[in-house]
Design goal:
By secondary structure, the protein is of the alpha+beta class. It contains six helices and eleven strands. It has helices at residues 33-42, 51-65, 69-72, 78-92, 119-125, 230-248, and strands spanning 94-95, 98-101, 107-113, 132-143, 148-150, 158-163, 170-178, 185-188, 191-193, 196-201, 206-213. Strands 3, 4, 5, 7, 8 and 11 form a six-stranded antiparallel beta sheet that branches. The chain has a five-stranded antiparallel beta sheet with strand order 1-2-6-10-9. Helix 1 runs antiparallel to helix 2 and helix 2 (51-65) packs across helix 4 (78-92). The longest helix has 19 residues, at 230-248. It is elongated.
Length: 253
C-alpha cells in the first residue's frame, strides 16, 4: 500500500516492518536544507575571484544562518565556507588605500574622499581651532548580508589605517571624527608606521587627519604651505583690511 513517511529528528526517512525483499518506490522526497547547503558549498570555488563568488557565499551564509543550531552542526564542509568568508573580509576591508581591522567579514568598508569644494569640508573646517585639514574622507561601513549601513555594537571599536599626509610644513597631527548625531568634532590619537597612520574609531562619518602649521624663522606661518587654504586666508586678510581702514582712516594690506 501507500504509506506517507515523515523524517525523524536527524532528517532520515525509515521504512519499518520490512519482512521480505520488496521494491520500494519513493515519491515526493526532497533534499533537506542542510543537504542543499552542503552541496552548494561543495560547488563553490576554493578562492574568491569574482563578484559572483562573493554573492554566492553571501547567499549560502544566509541559508546557513537560518538553520537551528543543531542542524548547523551537520554542515560537514563548513570549514570551506568560513575560509571563503575570511577571503571576502580581506578584500572588503580595504578601499581607496584605507583599511579597517576588527570588523566582521561581511562588513564592507566604504570610502569617499572629501575635496575642498565639498560642503562637508567647509563645515568641518569651521569647527576646528587653528588646525589645517590634511586629509578628509567620508568613511562608513556596509552590511552585505542585510544590504544596510552597519553600525558598530556599543563598546566595540575597530582600527582605521590611512595614508599619512605630507607633514613637511605641519606638526602635532591628530585624527578627527565628526559625530553624526551631535555634529561634535572628536580628536583621536594617531600612531605611525611605514607611511600610514592608525587610530581607533567607534562610529563612522567624515574623518581624517589635521595638524598645526610649523612656524620657522624667516618663513610665513600661512602662505608657504602646499595645501594652505588660500580662500580662507584671502577672506581673512580682506576683512582685516576693512576693519583697519574703518578704525584708522588709512589703507592697509
Amino acid at each position: 500500500g501507500k504509506n506517507e513517511l515523515q523524517p525523524d529528528d536527524s532528517g532520515n526517512y525509515v521504512v519499518e516492518n520490512v519482512q521480505e525483499n520488496k521494491t520500494v518506490t519513493v515519491l515526493g522526497l526532497e533534499k533537506t536544507k542542510e543537504a542543499e547547503i552542503i552541496n552548494d558549498v561543495e560547488n563553490l570555488p576554493d578562492a574568491i575571484e569574482t563578484l559572483n563568488d562573493v554573492d554566492s557565499v553571501l547567499e549560502i551564509t544566509k541559508l546557513y544562518n537560518s538553520l537551528p543550531d543543531e542542524k548547523k552542526q551537520k554542515i560537514a564542509n563548513l570549514n570551506k565556507l568560513t575560509d571563503l568568508q575570511k577571503q571576502i573580509g580581506n578584500m572588503c576591508h580595504k578601499n581607496n588605500d584605507i583599511t579597517v581591522d576588527g570588523a566582521e567579514w561581511y562588513v564592507k568598508l566604504m570610502v569617499v574622499p572629501i575635496s575642498t569644494s565639498d560642503e562637508a569640508y567647509t563645515r568641518i573646517y569651521g569647527k576646528l581651532n587653528s588646525e589645517y585639514i590634511l586629509s578628509l574622507y567620508d568613511i562608513y561601513l556596509w552590511d552585505m548580508l542585510t544590504d544596510k549601513r552597519y553600525n558598530l555594537p556599543k563598546d566595540q571599536s575597530i582600527v582605521v589605517t590611512l595614508p599619512t599626509p605630507n607633514m613637511s610644513y605641519f606638526e602635532n597631527a591628530t585624527a578627527i571624527h565628526e559625530d553624526s548625531s551631535t555634529g561634535k568634532i572628536d580628536y583621536l590619537s594617531l600612531s605611525y608606521s611605514g607611511g600610514y597612520s592608525k587610530f581607533e574609531a567607534t562610529s563612522f562619518s567624515p574623518m581624517g587627519i589635521i595638524a598645526n602649521r610649523t612656524v620657522s624663522p624667516g618663513r610665513s606661518s600661512l602662505l608657504d604651505a602646499v595645501d594652505a587654504n588660500f580662500k580662507m586666508i584671502s577672506n581673512y586678510a580682506s576683512s582685516s583690511s576693512d576693519r583697519n581702514t574703518s578704525n584708522n582712516g588709512h589703507n592697509s594690506s
